[in-house]
Design goal:
Blueprint (H helix, E strand, L loop, with lengths): L7 H31 L5 H28 L8 H7 L11 H29 L2 H24 L3
Helix pairs in contact: 1-2, 1-3, 1-4, 4-5
Length: about 160
């Protein structure tokens, strides 16, 4: 048993999956910063603000996920080498087109949502309400964002 009353083997597995999610969040965060800085064109003002809103939100999630890993008794990844190695979201470079930027955001959300649903199931099995609630909140919020960004692309 861990100090928070959860099975140690289950929390170790959760921490590994959360670290993988953390790596994806960090890559997504950095990609979104780049989109914010480099966006050009007709929708500049609109997208510049939306990307800032998104990366600000992602930075909060990075901290929450890292703190959850610590709560489970593990160490969060904290180097860019670790993030690049562990993440499924790959870095993007020099994207200035709005539609291409929004498409990369949708692809990142798809990766995150799949991982978070897996964590939702694992945390439910472990009786880990803290991780479960976090993933549930993220999924609900991100599904709405997917709808909104998809609408921008007329999908």
């Amino acid at each position: 048993m861990s100090f928070i009353g959860l099975d140690k083997k289950k929390t170790e597995k959760l921490a590994v999956k959360l670290n993988n999610l953390l790596a994806d969040y960090m890559m997504f965060y950095q990609n979104t910063r780049g989109l914010h800085w480099n966006i050009k064109g007709e929708k500049f003002f609109e997208l510049h603000l939306k990307f800032e809103e998104l990366y600000t939100n992602l930075l909060l999630k990075v901290d929450e996920v890292a703190e959850r890993i610590l709560t489970l008794g593990a160490t969060p990844l904290h180097t860019f080498d670790d993030y690049q190695y562990s993440a499924h979201i790959k870095s993007i470079k020099n994207v200035s087109d709005g539609k291409q930027g929004v498409q990369t955001i949708l692809e990142a959300f798809e990766i995150l949502l799949v991982k978070q649903r897996e964590l939702l199931n694992l945390s439910a099995d472990a009786g880990d309400e803290g991780t479960n609630a976090l993933m549930s909140d993220y999924i609900r919020e991100q599904e709405k964002l997917v709808w909104m960004y998809s609408s921008y692309l007329n999908k």
